[in-house]
Design brief:
With 98 residues, the protein is an all-alpha fold. The chain has one domain. It contains 3 helices and no strands. The termini are far apart. The model has no long low-confidence stretch (mean pLDDT 86).
Length: 98
């Protein structure tokens, strides 16, 4: 029988959600110039990780068939959040280097 990934997705998404809030707060506190795109991508990552958290949490209480569908959706959204977080990190890095 296949082991569920939902608890792992939930745990990691929640941690990265907290990291995104820290990044957003740090950007606001440091008053970086030209950060509108960085703010927007960080906010997008927050939305994606929150959606991944909710879908993985809901999938843990569902039947096997619907649980797998929700888990797969959470997995795809989580991967999208990772890509957005990576792009945000690169934008912050290049903005600091300038």
């Amino acid at each position: 029988m296949r082991e569920s990934r939902s608890p792992h997705i939930l745990n990691t998404s929640a941690n990265l959600l907290g990291l995104c809030f820290i990044v957003l707060t740090s950007i606001k506190v440091s008053k970086m110039q030209d950060v509108t795109l960085i703010d927007e991508t960080t906010a997008l990552a927050i939305v994606l990780f929150m959606a991944s958290c909710m879908l993985s949490f809901i999938s843990m209480g569902k039947s096997l068939g619907s649980s797998r569908k929700l888990e797969k959706a959470a997995d795809i959204i989580f991967l999208s959040g990772l890509v957005v977080l990576f792009l945000t990190t690169m934008m912050i890095t290049f903005n600091v280097i300038k």
